[in-house]
Amino acid sequence: MDELSETIETTPSPNRQLLCSEYSVRASEQGSSRSWKRSPASGIVTLEHQVSCWATECIILLTFIVFQDVHVMIFVGFGFLMTFLKKYGFSSVGINMLIAAFGLQWGTLMQGFWHMQDGKILVDINSMINADFSTATALISFGAVLGKTSPVQMLILTILEITIFACNEHLVTGIFQATDVGASMTIHAFGAYFGLAVSLVLYRPGLKNKHENEEPTYHSDLFAMIGTLFLWIFWPSFNSAIAHVNDRPKAITNTYYSLAASTVVTFALSSLVDQRGKFSMVLVQNATLAGGVAVGTCADLLNHPFAAMCIGAIAGIISVLGFHFLTPVLASKLNIHDTCGVHNLHGLPGVLGGIAGIVVTAIQRTNGKSAQHTPGMQAAALGSSIGIALAGGALTGAILKLPFLGQASDKNCFDDSIYWEVPEEEKLHVVHSNNYDEQSRFEATM
């Protein structure tokens, strides 16, 4: 084989993958000798080239698998998670799909603008993953205003938010050189506080008392749980998607155990905060995912799963208490109506993830393990993400408040029939309900 290697002739090609497609070389171990087989093409490639090509193909395949997982999270996970409202399932899944399909195209352009090569935007699997990431911010904000905005308003929000997100992400990763591999700060915290700012500006006094359609049914909660399970299963891929290849196993492991810890804590606390000691489907649908959000920033930095489990447990506690105590206060005192509770699933755990990133970076820097990332830049990244999100959300909310954008009336909020063709039985149910209300009012006057 040594003599053969010295006389190897290779076809000039700058692309190793193309080279591998031109030649087929197989080495089979037979004792101490190797037998080589050459394809009909002229020339032979060396074994090291073939191994290199195999490695490249494996990396591409693994990246594509991760992309598929993230894609499922965006279109299925987020969509079904918001189907808990009894008469807003079509819009939850349908508008989610519209936002995602539109947003990933706009995200490709906005993020590509900051990473142009020779004046061109590079489009590959990695850019597609980042496009899905940018879309996630708009979907998180969609949860804060779910049922209260029109499709046109959501498309405008998507354009503005992804544009602002791309600028903030460049500031965080390009200027501050902060680490945020799972995007706890740049996606989750940003999307949540952007949506809360929009919700504040679009606040409707008529919805202060809970709308009749703003509640789940047995079956709608079951559909929402499907979304939770898809997100839960694929979250390790989300947090490891843009990590360095060598750090992906660590990011996957840490996310895996953080999610498990937050799930156990959520079930325990859900029973404790309920007067009858029962589990809450709202908490199980959302707070079980808080561990994946919180561990995102430092998912590729933690060397021990126990640290990730601690972060996940704290995230579960914060999320449950936020749903139980903080959400009513935001609605009654600050006029922030958060339909899906994104503040408790994405906002607070995202802030926790940013703080965890500061602490872990400081510890590693003290031990001399990390000279690239500094606690100060991590803190600046967290502050900029929240501040830019609040300012951008307020500006976006002011634009969406323009009367010609087709915002539904208070009475028609949380109702699919305003924008969708619904089955006849649903229409009959609405008619019967209206007739019953009119008859009740008539009888009350008699």
Structural class: mainly alpha
Percentage of residues in DSSP E strands: under 5%
Low-confidence stretches: 1-43, 431-446
Shape: globular
CA(first)-CA(last) distance:
104 Å
Number of helices: 15
Q: In what order do the strands lie side by side in the largest sheet?
A: 1-2
The percent range for helix content is 55-70%
Largest sheet: 2 strands, antiparallel
Radius of gyration from the CA trace?
Answer: 26 Å
| Counted beta strands | 2
Q: Roughly what is the average pLDDT, rounded to an integer? A: 86
* Secondary-structure element string: HHEEHHHHHHHHHHHHH
Oligomeric assembly: single chain
Subcellular location: Membrane
Keywords: Ammonia transport, Glycoprotein, Membrane, Transmembrane, Transmembrane helix, Transport
Membrane topology: Multi-pass membrane protein
Protein name: Ammonium transporter Rh type A
Task: Provide structural commentary.
- This protein has 446 residues and is an all-alpha fold.
- Helices cover 67% and strands 2% of the residues.
- It has 15 helices and two strands.
- The chain has helices at 2-6, 16-22, 47-81, 89-114, 125-144, 151-175, 184-201, 218-240, 248-273, 281-286, 290-294, 305-333, 342-366, 375-400, 424-445; strands spanning 26-30, 33-37.
- It has a two-stranded antiparallel ribbon.
- The longest helix has 35 residues, at 47-81.
- It starts with a helix and ends with a helix.
